[in-house]
Amino acid sequence: MSSAVLKISCPDRKGIVAEVCQILADCSANIIDAQQHREDLDSQFFMYVKFDCSELNCERELLENRLKEKSELIGFNWTLSFKDQKKRLAIMVSKYDHCLYDLLLKHKYGELDVDIALIVSNHPDLKATAEHFGVPYFHIPRNKDNREQADQIAVDLFKEQKIDFIAMARYMQILTPILIQAYPNKIINVHHGFLPAFKGAKPYHQAYAKGVKLIGSTSHYANEELDMGPIIDQVTVRVSHAYSADDMVRKGRDMENRVLTNAVKAHAADRIIVYKGRTIIFS
Amino acid sequence: MSSAVLKISCPDRKGIVAEVCQILADCSANIIDAQQHREDLDSQFFMYVKFDCSELNCERELLENRLKEKSELIGFNWTLSFKDQKKRLAIMVSKYDHCLYDLLLKHKYGELDVDIALIVSNHPDLKATAEHFGVPYFHIPRNKDNREQADQIAVDLFKEQKIDFIAMARYMQILTPILIQAYPNKIINVHHGFLPAFKGAKPYHQAYAKGVKLIGSTSHYANEELDMGPIIDQVTVRVSHAYSADDMVRKGRDMENRVLTNAVKAHAADRIIVYKGRTIIFS
Amino acid sequence: MSSAVLKISCPDRKGIVAEVCQILADCSANIIDAQQHREDLDSQFFMYVKFDCSELNCERELLENRLKEKSELIGFNWTLSFKDQKKRLAIMVSKYDHCLYDLLLKHKYGELDVDIALIVSNHPDLKATAEHFGVPYFHIPRNKDNREQADQIAVDLFKEQKIDFIAMARYMQILTPILIQAYPNKIINVHHGFLPAFKGAKPYHQAYAKGVKLIGSTSHYANEELDMGPIIDQVTVRVSHAYSADDMVRKGRDMENRVLTNAVKAHAADRIIVYKGRTIIFS
Amino acid sequence: MSSAVLKISCPDRKGIVAEVCQILADCSANIIDAQQHREDLDSQFFMYVKFDCSELNCERELLENRLKEKSELIGFNWTLSFKDQKKRLAIMVSKYDHCLYDLLLKHKYGELDVDIALIVSNHPDLKATAEHFGVPYFHIPRNKDNREQADQIAVDLFKEQKIDFIAMARYMQILTPILIQAYPNKIINVHHGFLPAFKGAKPYHQAYAKGVKLIGSTSHYANEELDMGPIIDQVTVRVSHAYSADDMVRKGRDMENRVLTNAVKAHAADRIIVYKGRTIIFS
By the CB < 8 Å criterion, does D128 face chain A? Predict the structure, then answer.
């Protein structure tokens, strides 16, 4: 079975569901899963429809055209993606390798429905790991004087390699607008703190100083405001007074893996819509 | 078996454990549990010793005198409490009753080793509930014009009733220094947010607006800075984009119960030491 | 807005979704949520559709008739329920009251979308609690000699009171077929162990003896095989060697509350289908 | 600072703590942490003492002699281990590599206080992974006809390599008594099910068939009864009806990593005592 995901958003109005379902039915697309969400504050409507497209009675292009016509007529935003066209993922890393390993291993086990196209790092250290998993590794040095230049090199590489989205696997660098604007809501970062608390540098040390009893990690889309992009996933674990900041760093690794890998899975499966700084994530 | 808890804190130095254990051994106090903690940042030492005092070979007063002498000689802070002298708890409530029920029920089941001496409220609403559990209920009206006065009435009542510590079971009022200073590190508040994020009013609405994927609750000692006192316990639960702020309020109740009741248990069992705005909680 | 839930099950075949959606569309029923499930082992298909029925263009009965006709034509099982027709819940208790309190309180807070019609107990002890919440309390004594008789009295009472489903809130009695057969897949029991381990009596003592590091609770539909009915919800919490069986009993209460209350919520919202001894629970 | 761990067990009697502490004090061993446990069923006493041994005023051997004398005089079992003498771990694997990676990575990050001496496998597949981490890899083929022989080869290798304990990282083989008896309570296995439910083969398939809502993993010491050895750690995660057995396998990997790595950490730190088929694990 081959499947596809259609996502729709628009101001809420009557009959939109029926009209969209009709188009799918006309094309012999069999609905597998349909979820809806409504933002009560401003009456915005969101729909996620997953359908079996293995027995379409027309070209995919024709289905797309019909959706385009209808959207122009009644006014809605839409995206359509087919599962057999895997998204291409680029991973950015620095020296810490735990998130990288988690992505590479979960991909190897068939849990991540993407092509891992390449790894970019500002250090040469993890080249052997990339090779062990057979993924091309690009070393793009980056320091405070060449940040724009380095990000431009990365963007050029990503465009050339037809990269769809990017996972910052503890990349530890603040991206310039060059990179962020090239991939809006397509760069997933993991912050090793429970946002919105503990933004910025050394969040575990901030958590220690405050005496929290849970530490957290957050994955989010990177935008131009540091650690303020739309949150995708969060996890917390229990700590006690006996944890030093270093112990928290240690304890935090598994959480960071989970929130980043979960976010990559959700993005790869087209289950996320970003709306007004928040994420709507269909399950 | 009757037990007692000795807590000690002082700048770290050699031999303190041995000297204290010697005093206990001399009095035939059998150590049941001994935990230590050291703050590396400023070399402060903390010790918790629980011992069987059912076969002491001397009066409790004599043991206390020996500890006092030793503490003056070598310099340490100490507290000693006996389990058979139950602490007296006052509960402060407003109109929400879930935390109140949790405390009353857990007490009924024998899980809270305290005497629930009385309930104070700024509303008359929960009087029937207090009566159902056989606990005296005091209605002390409170508004923005009589806050000092109301808190003074409460303090007088607490002093008269020999209250040892206080649980604010969603009391929803900002205490004046009159009450806070009368019971330093003895007033436990529950905040329905994951501190230090989402301080102050309507934390679930703040969480909703930020689009977090976990919501939390925090119990802490009330001090003069709103929602900034030493954290005692924290819990989080998962939410999604589909949760309205009201859904979060609903989901939050069980968390609020847990963090408040856990904090009351830990305080009642003399397992907490406050140091520089953080809590050390022996297990 | 008033909503309704339609549940369908049948051997999987093409077009069923479209045909059902068409009926709903024809009646101006606006789909809010649609979930599907397919059992791969025997190709069984299940669908859950929640729709807005506040602007139906026909009588509810007409919609029902059209579903009936279609189901006879193409062969599927279906149930339709309207949210404004609240289900009537009976609670059965013995002497333990924690699950009872959780149900009564969550109902009071508006979290349980049912009418709590009555409480039945084999002991008089919890009458005052029932009265405190304004729920009728029926004491039906039950011992090993009158079990059939007692269950018949209960069934008669439930029929007279138009009870839709039953929560055994730690009722601690083995029901006879008289009661079980009168309410198939409509009696929710809570077992204080992690089924299928630790069936039968004293599960916490069994867990202690085995030295487990997690204890669990399970809610399930009662059937004629003890503790073997379809599982609805399960929760575990961490314990250590230091927990006695009694400590586990204490720790278990909150879990028992959660699994029972969650199960009652899911049943009340018509989100459960039972198939071959397992539950399909739409979210 | 260099530390040591002393573990003691014996029938409970007065004064044992004092006598042991005295020996430590006489040798200038500074107690860092002391935990006790008492089995109420048969009055057995257990003690864990961690002490700073960096300023002992005597040879370690003398301390050991004094403990030996005292244990013979008053009757207790004891073990003493020094943190600077790292335990040597052997890892046994088959073809699944997730638990292996977790152990190798956590060791690399400094979380596992052991020397990973070697990896043994019944397949050649993971040799490249072993080499990537610089750990010797021994391929010992094993089939149903040569099990005793293969296990004898393993035992000989382990003895020669001075292996202290063994982690079966999803080794997927039933050990013969030859190996089990050579390392009693020193072989840690991970079972991909929530013991004592779902023993033996294909536990996730058993869990699926039963319709559980949580799946679990268990680490335990291997003994001669399959999947019945003393439990060390357990973790559960939530599943739904939508999980196939294969989905559970996928979801289970992170749990299996956690319970095995946690067990290896606890064993490495000398925090475990096995008593009557249960583990006492100091924290």
Answer: yes
Over 90: is that where the pLDDT of B201 sits?
no
Strands C87-93 and C165-168: parallel
**Residue D249 phi/psi, 5° resolution?**
-55, -45
Q: CB of D251 within 8 Å of any CB in chain A?
A: no
A30 pLDDT tier (thresholds 50, 70, 90): confident
CB-CB: which of D111, D132, D254 is closest to A250?
D111
Q: How far is CA A97 from CA A143, A172, A193, in A?
A: 20, 12, 18
A52-59 long-range contacts (CB < 8 A, ≥24 apart) are A52/A1, A52/A2, A52/A3, A53/A2, A53/A3, A53/A4, A53/A29, A53/A82, A54/A1, A54/A2, A54/A3, A55/A28, A55/A30, A56/A27, A56/A28, A56/A29, A57/A27, A57/A28, A58/A27, A58/A28
CB B222 within 8 A of CB B188: yes
Instruction: With beta carbons less than 8 A apart as the criterion, state whether C204 and C184 touch.
Output: no
Backbone dihedral region for residue B64 (phi beyond 0: left; psi -120 to 50: alpha; all else: beta) = alpha
Domains contained in chain C, CATH given: 3-82 (3.30.70.260), 87-281 (3.40.50.170)
The per-residue pLDDT for range A187-234, each reduced to its tens digit, is: 999 998 888 888 888 888 898 989 999 999 999 999 988 888 999 999
Name chain A's partners: 3 or more CB pairs within 8 A.
Answer: B, C, D
Rounded to the nearest 5°, which phi and psi values hold at A122?
Answer: -85, 5
Question: Closest approach of chain B CAs to the CA of A210, in angstroms?
Answer: 7
Q: Model confidence over C261-282: pLDDT tens digits?
A: 999 999 999 999 999 999 999 9
Contacts of C among chains (3+ CB pairs under 8 A) = A, B, D
Q: How far apart are CA C81 and CA C87, in angstroms?
A: 10
- Which among A242, A208, A213 is positioned nearest to B233, based on CA atoms? A213
Q: Distance between CA atoms of A154 and A160, rounded to whole angstroms?
A: 10
Task: Give the tokens for residue D21.
Answer: 């502490």
Give the bridge partners for D48, in sequence order.
D7, D35
Contact A17 C31 (CB under 8 A): yes
H-helix or E-strand containing D213?
A: none
What is the bridge-based pairing of β-strands D165-168 and D87-93?
A: parallel
CB atoms under 10 Å from CB of C111, counted, come to 17
Query: By the 8 A CB rule, do A91 and A103 touch?
Result: yes
* Long-range own/partner contacts, residues D141-147 (CB < 8 A, 24 or more apart): D142/D173, D147/D173, D147/D174, D147/D176
C277 to D214: CB separation less than 8 angstroms, yes or no: no
Measured distance between the N- and C-terminal CA atoms of chain A, rounded to whole angstroms? 20
Query: Which residues lie below 8 Å from residue C205, measured CB to CB, with a gap of 6+?
Result: C245
Instruction: Characterise B195 by phi-psi region: left (phi > 0), alpha (psi -120 to 50), beta (else).
Output: beta
CB-based contacts of D67: which residues, under 8 Å, 6+ apart?
Answer: D6, D20, D23, D78, D80
Under an 8 A CB cutoff, do A212 and B233 touch?
no
Q: Which amino acid, D191? A: H
Pairing mode of beta strands B3-11, B44-52: antiparallel
Burial class (CB in 10 A: 0-12, 13-18, 19+), A134: exposed
Neighbours of C148 (CB within 10 A): 12
Residue C71 tokens, joined: 């189901």
Residue D173 DSSP one-character state: S
Whole-number Cα distances in Å, D66 to A177, D33, D59, D71: 69, 21, 11, 9
**Of C32, C88, C86, nearest in space to C55 by CA:** C32
ipTM over 0.90: yes
- Is A33 in the active site? no
DSSP secondary structure, C143-209, as one string:
-TTSHHHHHHHHHHHHHHTT--EEEESS--SPPPHHHHHHSTT-EEEEESS-TTSS-SS-HHHHHHH
Q: Do A109 and D253 touch (CB under 8 A)?
A: yes
Helix (H) and strand (E) counts for chain D?
A: 8, 13
- DSSP H/E element including B273: strand B272-275
